[in-house]
Structures are given as C-alpha cells and as structure tokens.
Amino acid sequence: MKRRLVETLEMALVVEPNLGIVTDNMVAEWGGVPYPELSVLLANLKFLASVHQNHHWTTKGDPFYGDHLLFSRLYEGVTGEIDSIAEKAIGLGSTANVDIALLHNQLCKLIQGYGMTSTIPQPTELAKRSYLAEMNFLKVVAHLVEHMKACGTLTRGLDNLLAGIEDKHEGHIYLLKQRIMPQ
Fold first, then answer.
1. Which letter, b or e, does each residue of 30-45 get, where b requires 16 or more Cβ atoms within 10 Å of its Cβ?
2. Contact, 84 vs 92, CB < 8 A?
3. What is the pLDDT of residues 88-109, one digit of tens each?
4. Residue 80 three-state SS
5. Which of 89, 123, 136, 137 has the fewest CB atoms in 10 Å of its CB?
C-alpha cells in the first residue's frame, strides 16, 4: 500500500501540531461562503508565495545565486496556483470567496502562527523555513480535501486541480530537501 508524502513519519515531525484545528477555524471564519476551503487554500498559497519571495529577496552569502534562483522558482510557481484557486473559488462559489479583508486577516494569522517575526532569518535558515512551510502546506491541502470529501463538495475537476498542486509542491519539497541535506 502506497503512503502519501503527507502521511510519512518525516511529515509528522515537521508539521505544526495544531494544523488541522487552525485550518478548521480558518474555514469557519468564512461563514456561509460556498467552498470556504478554497478561500483558506488561497490564503495559504499567498502565505507560501510570500515566504519564498521574501527568501528570494534576502538570501546572501554562499550559495547566494543558487538559493536566489531556487526561491524565485518556488514563488513564481505558486503565483499561478493563486490565480487558479481564486478563479475556481469564484466559479464554484462566489466573489465573497476572495474577500480581500478576510484573506489579509488570515494571512496575518498564518504569519504569526508560523512564528515569523519582523527579523530576517539567517541565510542558513531560509531553505529550512521554506521546507517547513511547504510540508505544512501539503498537510493543509490534504486536510481541506478530506473536509470537502466529507461535505460532498469535492468535484472531479477540483480534485484534479488540487492533486496537480500537491504534485508540484512535492517537487518543491524535493528541491528544498536537496538544498538542506548535509553534503
């Protein structure tokens, strides 16, 4: 029996312990909006893009150039997903699914929840932070998919879109793992 990446022991070691509860609370904040899971996913994607882009801007030292390109590749890949999820959320739900104030509020909560402070991490920590953010993101996606399955709102097209996003982020984890592994 194959086990998904998000179910491995390694994942359990790096995932925030209350991630499911936090995600459920974020879904509840969207109230009666159809497909609130997509709105929560959108907030998480915006957070992930911000993390990678910040790391792209702040990398320095050895290996600056490689890290600069790596973080650029990661955040640029996420921006297309943001658009796809926002359009799907509006298409299946409504424009209320992309309420800028609530998205911003949830983005701020994610920043605080991950212990991101106003200080810039050391260059040696950037890839580790991106790795942790990616691992947590996959766990959030898996949790949201299960929630939509339980609610009966997971369409085949949406399942396909989310599976493609998961696949891409598993690729991000591979790249980051190669970067943070000892030589």
1. beebebbbbbbbbbbb
2. no
3. 999 999 999 999 999 999 999 9
4. helix
5. 123
Written as six digits, the tokens of 127 are 């890839």
pTM of the model: 0.88
Q: What does the block give as tokens for 113? A: 């929840």
Q: Are 61 and 121 in contact (CB under 8 A)?
A: no
pLDDT below 70 — which residues of the chain?
1-16, 115-119, 183
Please report the DSSP string for 109-124 in residue order: HHHHHTT--SSPPPHH
The tokens of 66 are what?
Answer: 């490689």
Give me the pLDDT at residue 1, please: 38
User: Rounded to an integer, what is the distance from CA 73 to the centroid of its chain?
Assistant: 15
**Residue spans per domain, the chain:** 17-180
23 CB-near residues (< 8 Å, 6+ apart): 40, 140, 143, 144, 147
Considering only the top CATH level, what class is 17-180?
mainly alpha
d(CA 170, CA 161): 14
Return the pLDDT at 84: 97
Alpha helices by DSSP H, the chain: 9-14, 19-29, 36-58, 64-92, 100-113, 123-151, 156-180
